[in-house]
Amino acid sequence: MELVVLIVIIAALALFFIATYNRLITLRQRVKEAWADIDVQLKRRHDLIPNLVETVKGYATHESTVFQNVTQARAAAVAAGASASPQERAQAENMLTTALRSVFAVAENYPQLQAVQEFKDLSENLTATEDKIAFARRFYNGNVRDFNTALQTFPTNVFASMFGFKAEEYFELADTAAREVPQVKF
């Protein structure tokens, strides 16, 4: 009888151990999948930017520093690529976002540019891509939250440390100006 109880306890512990390990693997895979979604949207963004810059350049040739800044920020974001941590990648992408804002500010000074269909299409595509990036960031951060929570809760934290699971970094907005509430003045 004692042997049966011991076998049941060992089997229960083994099942718990297997379920916990599999859960951690599943959560880690979800984080990787979410990161891949961000990569896809950032690649799309990087592909759209040169076309947008070239279109605006045709109308605003004397705004060369704006275009240089966008080109440099895009190059830094592309260079960050898959080798950078989420925090480093977010920093590079935030610099690119800031540079893109300046392109749209330049475009506002050229009303004839805003009437060009190619510019309209590119800016709409870029806006849609920015929305998809924001969604992908939220999805990624939600998966990171779930994974990191699982790593820190007992008894999962014991198994996680035994098998070398490490907490993932959030993909956070580093631009403090973007966090501020916009001022509405009439």
Description:
The chain is mainly alpha-helical and 186 residues long. The chain has a single domain, classed as LemA-like domain (de novo design (two linked rop proteins)), CATH 1.20.1440.20. Helix content is 79%, strand content 0%. The protein has seven helices and no strands. The longest helix is centred in the first third of the chain and has 56 residues. The chain is rod-shaped and about 90 Å long.
Number of domains as seen in the coordinates:
1
What oligomeric state do the depicted chains represent?
Answer: single chain
The structure class reads: mainly alpha
**DSSP helix fraction:** over 70%
Q: CATH topology, which one? A: de novo design (two linked rop proteins)
General shape: rod-shaped
- The overall strand count is 0
Mean pLDDT across the residues is: 84
Look at the structure and give the CATH class. Mainly Alpha
Q: Report the order of strands and helices.
A: HHHHHHH
**Given the structure, what is the number of helices?**
7
Per CATH, which architecture?
Up-down Bundle
- CATH superfamily grouping: LemA-like domain
Radius of gyration: 24 Å
- Termini separation comes to 82 Å
Secondary structure elements and their pairing?
Elements: H1 2-57, H2 64-80, H3 86-108, H4 111-114, H5 117-152, H6 156-162, H7 176-179
Helix pairs in contact: 1-2, 1-3, 1-5, 2-3
Protein traits:
single chain; de novo design (two linked rop proteins); 186 residues; rod-shaped; 0% strand; mainly alpha
Question: TL;DR of this structure?
Answer:
By secondary structure, this protein is an all-alpha fold. It has helices at 2-57, 64-80, 86-108, 111-114, 117-152, 156-162, 176-179.
